[in-house]
Design brief:
The chain has about 375 residues and is of the alpha/beta class. The chain has three domains: about 1-60, no CATH class; about 70-185 and about 305-335, Response regulator (Rossmann fold, 3-Layer(aba) Sandwich); about 185-305 and about 335-365, Response regulator (Rossmann fold, 3-Layer(aba) Sandwich), CATH 3.40.50.2300. The chain contains 15 helices and 13 strands. The chain has helices at about 10-15, 20-30, 35-60, 85-95, 115-125, 135-145, 185-195, 215-230, 245-255, 265-270, 270-280, 290-295, 305-320, 345-350, 355-360, and strands at about 70-75, 105-110, 130-135, 150-155, 175-180, 205-210, 230-240, 260, 285-290, 300-305, 330-335, 335-340, 365. The strands form two sheets. The protein has a seven-stranded mixed beta sheet with strand order 7-6-8-9-10-12-13, with helices on both faces. A six-stranded parallel beta sheet has the order 2-1-3-4-5-11, sandwiched between helices. Helix 8 links the parallel strand 6 (about 205-210) and strand 7 (about 230-240). It is elongated and about 65 Å long. The termini are far apart.
């Protein structure tokens, strides 16, 4: 019944959740006719109760939860995250999403141990994050097996259709979409570039983790490239958990390998410093697939810009957070490719990089 005696102004104020002074609210009623003191007291109590009720109702309205993004690092620690993570965060910021403000990134670190990745993925699934970003094949496979409900944005260096991650590029289907680096399609180009740097190249070694699925695909591609360029190929394979890099390089020396390709994956990332110190020690020019290996002492790299890909992956995440279904978002391919050259390493090897190669470089490291 008390709604019937309310002035329309009161109802509007309650609807908007605004607090109004009692004098302003009851003014029209007070001017309309004289009011007895006892009735005035009763109205005061009634209005006070009414505004407390409105304030309580507004306070009880549910607030929108901050969306959570699961991000797994194969290497690094919370204190030293990958530079690629910063690229991803910058991509989010460009689209109006700031970590710790209107979005939360749940980070997990495998610290170079691939065997820890399934448990880290399972933890994110249990936490019911809104989307998972998977930046390598071990993480992608673990995420695909762990959930069909949570959207997954991938960055992969293998053909995602051939690997079974998605149905096709245009309509990925299910809960996965993302970007491909075209890394395997560039294998022949890397061998060609290495031949320009090492004209007398006749025996090529491939250093790879033979226990991982991604490098196994890569090795087959380098076998095909070596045949195309009429090169002898030597497998320098290592395995977790105790990779024998010293033995692999001794095998390369015994086989009289002229140069090597290093196939990157979490295991190789964990031992990067040791690998390129051994390469210099054995005077072996090295071709890598990512610029970060050249920054760590490798000679040259050719591949898609991972910085650009991780930044672009934020676009998928934002579309999904806004309601898009990952299976309806086409898988896109890399559009930027980079050549990195380390002149310090070339000097240590006593190798002169041809000028025609230097002018193609996107980044030259001198010290």
């Amino acid at each position: 019944m008390f709604f019937a005696i309310m002035d329309r102004k009161i109802l509007i104020a309650c609807y908007n959740g605004r607090r109004m002074k009692f004098a302003n609210v009851v003014g029209p009623i007070a001017e309309a006719r004289p009011v007895q003191k006892p009735r005035n007291v009763a109205l005061t109590v009634l209005f006070s109760f009414f505004f407390v009720f409105c304030a309580f109702a507004v306070a009880q309205q549910p607030t929108k939860a901050v969306p959570r993004i699961g991000f797994i690092f194969s290497t690094g620690t919370p204190e030293t995250p990958s530079p690629l993570f910063e690229s991803f965060r910058l991509g989010l910021k460009d689209l109006g999403y700031v970590d710790g403000k209107n979005v939360s990134i749940e980070s997990r670190y495998a610290e170079g141990r691939s065997d820890r990745i399934p448990a880290l993925v399972a933890d994110l699934v249990q936490q019911k994050v809104d989307v998972i970003v998977a930046g390598n094949n071990v993480i992608i496979r673990a995420a695909k097996q762990a959930t069909k409900a949570i959207p997954i944005v991938i960055i992969t260096n293998v053909d995602p259709v051939a690997a079974g991650y998605v149905r096709n590029f245009a309509q990925p289907g299910e809960n996965i979409t993302g970007l491909g680096t075209l890394s395997r399609d560039l294998s022949a180009k890397r061998v060609e570039l290495l031949k320009e740097i090492v004209p007398k190249l006749s025996k090529l070694g491939v250093l790879w983790d033979s226990a991982a699925p991604g490098p196994a695909i890569a090795f087959k591609e380098y076998e095909a490239a070596a045949r195309a360029f009429k090169l002898e190929l030597r497998s320098l394979d290592v395995r977790d958990p105790n990779p024998d890099f010293t033995g692999a390089f001794q095998s390369a020396k015994a086989s009289q390998v002229d140069a090597l390709v290093v196939v990157g994956n979490p295991l190789i990332l964990q031992y990067t410093k040791q690998i390129f110190e051994l390469a210099v020690k054995h005077r072996l020019p090295s071709m890598t697939e990512e610029g970060r290996f050249v920054s760590a002492g490798g000679l040259v790299s050719y591949g898609a810009s991972l910085t650009d890909l991780f930044r672009r992956s934020a676009e998928y995440v934002v579309e999904i957070l806004k309601g898009a279904k990952p299976g309806d978002l086409p898988v896109k391919l890399a559009s930027r490719f980079e050549i990195f050259i380390n002149l310090k390493t070339s000097q240590q090897l006593g190798l002169v990089i041809p000028q025609r190669v230097l002018v193609q470089a996107d980044k030259i490291i001198k010290e």
